[in-house]
Amino acid sequence: MNAPWLSVVGIGEDGLDGLGATARTLIDTAEVLIGGERHLAMVSDHIAEKIAWPSPMKTLIEDIERFKPRRTCILASGDPTRYGVAVRLFRRLPVDEMTVVPAPSSITLACAAMGWPQAETRVVTLHGRPLDLLNLHLHPGARLIALSENAETPAAVAGRLTELGFGDSQMAVLERLGGPKQHQVNGIARDWAHPAGDNLNIVAIACVAGPGAQVLSRVPGLPDDAYTHDGTMTKREVRAATLAALAPPPGGTLWDIGAGSGSIAIEWIRAHDDNRAFAIEPLAERRALIATNAARLGAPGIRIIDGRAPEAVRGLPTPDAIFIGGGLTTDGVVDTCWAALAPGGRMVANAVTLESERILMDTANRLGGALTRIQISRAEPIGGMHGWKPLMPVTQWIGEKSRGGDT
Q1: What is the pLDDT of residues 233-262, one digit of tens each?
Q2: Residue 162, number of CB atoms within 10 A of its CB
Q3: Full-prediction pTM beyond 0.85?
Q4: Residue at 378 is within a domain
Q5: Do the Cβ atoms of 308 and 280 come closer than 8 Å?
Q6: Is residue 215 part of a domain?
Q7: How confident is the model over 301-358, as pLDDT tens digits?
Q8: DSSP one-letter string for 90-105
Q9: SS3 sequence, 253-265?
């Protein structure tokens, strides 16, 4: 078996001196060295061809095989298998064409510095991603490691914690971890006044919820008042039943047809960090509501699609689940969605009108699945006493596609 032509070497803040024999040999014998300016400066005397990462770097990753069979070494920071270049390369190349030598990650070093068990610490990457992602992970007692975008990130994190009622949380900003310039600054979020430091930093957060904090579970069925809406939304009890029927798998993709306020798509994403959702909604004012709710509830990655099914779903990634909350009476919606659904996937549709219910009954006759009537009543004041006020009944159809492609 030939030796792999491509290697990825993780380098810590201690530079080349911190590398083991294997990593040094891969660098020393390379014919091509690829990396950022900081890493290439460490090997300035090397006779290999040196290539700095372009912007965007994916252009070079997509063309990486042009260097084959020359011995090519990519210089990376820390552990490149976690949020690093190796993750992208694993998706492009057979693993037997690569050798990856990671250094201790900044996450490992941060947990060691804080005295936190890594298995009990949640990692949130804010590098190149919205600060709103932090919102999803805030709960009393949580220990978070936030990977910063730049030197301004710690102050932004402190502001967000304070805004959401977690201003008493303890923060530590860890700079240049693992090297001679390692530095740590500690403080309380609501009192954070430290000037911006090094761009290369991590923020460690020990979450403390104050009296005004809104603590939200990741279990489906958030309170209705967690959402901004125009009155048309899937109510809490029905939403919980709908998400249970959709059964979000880790890394699953959802189409939310007629998304309204976005509550189903948002709670699908909240169910697992790797989930993604496409919210299809024709009304501009409701698309704005989806964006607002998604940001506040820690799901800013939702893709909001302007249009109506079935036309608007053409070309979208294959879904593992589909929810139809609006547009059932539009010709072709059910059949188009069912045809697009991945084998083993689930489709759930809710109806509140007789016309929509008739379509679900026909769908059940054609495709099988289960029909359920959901009737919810809530206790509300009646004069000086209380009584039950019923919500509109909901008819729900649940269909599961077999692995062979049929019901």
Answers
A1: 899 999 999 999 999 999 999 999 999 999
A2: 18
A3: yes
A4: yes
A5: yes
A6: no
A7: 999 999 999 999 999 999 999 999 989 999 999 999 999 999 999 999 999 999 999 9
A8: HTTS-GGGEEEEPPPP
A9: EEEEECCCCCHHH
Query: Would you call 138 helix, strand, or coil by DSSP?
Result: coil
Which range of residues forms the domain containing residue 125?
Answer: 107-206
What is the CATH classification number for the domain harbouring 121? 3.30.950.10
Strand partners, 385: 382
Q: What residues are paired with 33 via a beta bridge?
A: 50, 73
248 Rama class: left (phi>0) / alpha (psi -120 to 50) / beta? beta
Residues 267 and 349 occupy one common structural domain: yes
Per DSSP, helices labelled H in 133-207 are: 153-163
**DSSP three-state, residue 218:** coil
Number of domains in the chain: 3
What number of other Cβ atoms are within 10 A of residue 401's Cβ? 20
Report yes or no: 215 and 169 within 8 Å, Cβ to Cβ: no
Strand stretches in 102-243, DSSP E: 122-125, 143-147, 170-175, 183-188, 201-206
Q: Which residues of 274-313 are buried (b: 16+ CB within 10 A; e: fewer)?
A: ebbbbbbbbbeebbebbeebbbbbbbbebebbeebbbebb
For 247: left if phi > 0, alpha if psi spans -120 to 50, otherwise beta; the answer is left
DSSP state of 66: G
Please write the tens of the pLDDT for every residue from 112-150: 999 999 999 999 999 989 999 999 999 999 999 999 999
Counted residue by residue, the chain has a size of 407
